[in-house]
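[agent] plan:
  1. take the single chain provided in the ticket
  2. run structure prediction with default settings
  3. attach structure tokens to the ticket
  4. add a short note for the reviewer (M.T.)
[agent] executing step 1
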Amino acid sequence: MPNLKAFEVQAFGCHIRVETSCSEAYDALERYIFPPFPRTQHAPSGADIAVKVERVDDRFLLLANGTEITVSESLINLAPALIRVVDDAVIRNLGNFRAVHAGTVLCGRQALLLPGATHAGKSSIVAKLLRRGAKYFSDEYALIDPDGFVHAYPRPLLLRNGMPEQIPVLPEELNSSFGVGPVPIGWILCFEYQPTYLWDVEKVPQSEGLMLLLRNTPHALEDSPSMVDVFLKAVARAECYVGRRGDAEEAADYIEKLVGGFA
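[agent] step 2 finished; step 3 output follows
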């Protein structure tokens, strides 16, 4: 029987255990599960989620806490499901952080948040901004601490790049790198996207910025009443904008001008 290879990661209060007996799968797990975070070795107990990848004939099987999640003929196609399983576990086990569905990049010493639901085009905009010099925080979640500062959520981007399936992409593949926080929020931009739209964005009060965060959080307000105070602190330093956008390249041009560059 092949030797089992394993590591563990602590991510925002979530204890993740990862294991496989396949060397190829182990390399992919190392690459795609919070790559900047240190790996540790402990006894296989007490994890909030145990992720395992098994090779069965010519396919790869993903399990979480012993339950089959999906199967694929390639690790690259398995990666999106792997990343989402880990995302769900982290969000369920967040400590003092509050999450917002938002693409997030570092512009100088402040964060730019792009709130929006999954499949709203956040990742494509984030990828364009990284190629222009922004540092990567996340393409899915902004994690906000009790003081209103944003921390990097360093999972890979999930991009389609003209293909039907998403693939994982690390920031170095976009000539960027993972940003380091915590940092204040400098800008909040929320777009409606249609390919035929032209850029049409207006500045709104911070009260609207607060509502954008509340509308795009996975947390229930009744379960976390302090969240309003946290988000109020988060928007206190931010310029807030809403509107619509079309092509991601054109949007990136306008965003770069709006934030004054990424240095």
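[agent] step 4 note for reviewer: The CA atoms of residues 94 and 172 lie 27 Å apart.
[agent] ticket updated
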